[in-house]
User: Which sequence fits this backbone?
């Protein structure tokens, strides 16, 4: 059993990186996709199923868990791992993004942010210290600094103000995190779509010598090319021996292009959210199972998939479930989607190992472009 947090870079292929994070609760193979378990559940999935898809780590949400059931209660119940029956690594975000995006009423200053709960209107205060305290009570393995995440586009002066405060908050979070053997705190690079501010943020966080670094404030409305430009800008200023995490990203195309630029970790609600709305991700691209063309199609989503949801259920049945509003439809499509994402990550890791990542990327994108099976 590993008692310390450690990241090892095992192989590179161009800028793409194959690595492994080891920590007491297990290893994380990188590049890694982390399913989002917002309130202690990956929506429409059993966590045993999530593990079987190939997930090494899941994500929990500090904002939602602090409001319900509450961090002190979770701690009394043995911590988040015990409560949800997931004895593998968990990363918790800081709650900052949800405070900014979900709270209609909030007041932000140097001390932190005071906001109204979206559940019952009660007022709460989140400071850098309280964010780390909550994550400690949850017992998560990787804990994120509190930051201010602005939606893009935004004025450069406002982006600069938020970035500089996020750096100061990172310093306070590091002190509050203290020494937690086997666990890690990651900093979050901010700076919007301004390259010079991204570099300034990355350099300031690098000086803190944290266990890992995230790129935040992207996938919030900007075009993909802007996101990729910011990755290219930031990564040279992050230490090569530390993991790099692109927060809230994304589509399979976002992921594979970001791996090509040196990103190691991803999370996104897209596979489960899309599944609940009738959209399947496959090696042939996206399939909208709600479309009438699937109503009498007895073929599976993908006869070669290792996932039973993709291999053993007909499109006609999935179409019927989704159009009928049956919960099972969303469950099966979420299972398919998470399996596809993990299969994609497995394929990426293998391709980097074999020094053929560029070919794998081209073949994968070509398969998406060719599209789904011909209509029956």
Assistant:
């Amino acid at each position: 059993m590993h008692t310390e947090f450690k990241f090892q870079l095992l192989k590179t292929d161009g800028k793409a990186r194959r690595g492994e994070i080891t920590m007491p609760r297990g290893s994380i193979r990188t590049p890694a996709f982390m399913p989002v378990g917002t309130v202690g559940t990956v929506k429409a999935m059993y966590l045993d199923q999530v593990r079987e898809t190939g997930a090494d780590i899941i994500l929990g949400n500090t904002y939602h868990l602090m409001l319900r059931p509450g961090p002190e209660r979770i701690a009394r119940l043995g911590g988040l791992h015990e409560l949800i029956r997931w004895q593998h690594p968990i990363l918790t975000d800081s709650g900052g993004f949800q405070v900014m995006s979900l709270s209609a009423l909030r007041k932000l200053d140097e001390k932190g942010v005071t906001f109204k709960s979206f559940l019952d209107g009660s007022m709460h205060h989140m400071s850098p210290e309280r964010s780390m305290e909550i994550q400690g009570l949850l017992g998560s393995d990787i804990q994120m600094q509190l930051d201010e995440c602005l939606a893009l586009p935004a004025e450069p002066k406002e982006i600069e103000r938020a970035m500089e405060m996020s750096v100061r908050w990172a310093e306070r979070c590091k002190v509050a995190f203290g020494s937690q053997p086997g666990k890690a705190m990651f900093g979050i690079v901010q700076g919007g779509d301004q390259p010079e501010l991204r570099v300034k943020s990355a350099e300031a966080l690098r000086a803190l010598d944290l266990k890992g670094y995230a790129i935040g404030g992207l996938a919030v409305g900007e075009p993909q090319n802007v996101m990729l430009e910011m990755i290219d800008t930031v990564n040279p200023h992050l230490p090569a021996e530390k993991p790099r995490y692109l927060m809230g990203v994304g589509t399979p195309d976002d992921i594979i292009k970001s791996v090509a630029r040196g990103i190691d970790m991803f999370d996104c609600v897209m596979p489960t959210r899309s599944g609940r709305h009738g959209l399947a991700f496959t090696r042939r691209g996206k399939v909208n199972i709600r479309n009438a063309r699937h109503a009498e199609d007895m073929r599976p989503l993908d006869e070669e998939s290792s996932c039973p949801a993709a291999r053993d259920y007909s499109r006609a049945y999935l179409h019927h479930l989704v159009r009928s509003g049956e919960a099972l439809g969303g469950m099966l499509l979420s299972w398919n989607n998470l399996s596809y994402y993990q299969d994609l990550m497995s394929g990426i890791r293998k391709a980097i190992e074999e020094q053929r990542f560029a070919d794998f990327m081209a073949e994968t994108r070509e398969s998406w472009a060719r599209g789904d099976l011909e209509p029956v």
User: Anything to note?
Assistant: The chain has a mean pLDDT of 95. The radius of gyration is 20 Å. The chain has two domains: 6-30+61-268, 275-370. The chain has 15 helices and 16 strands.
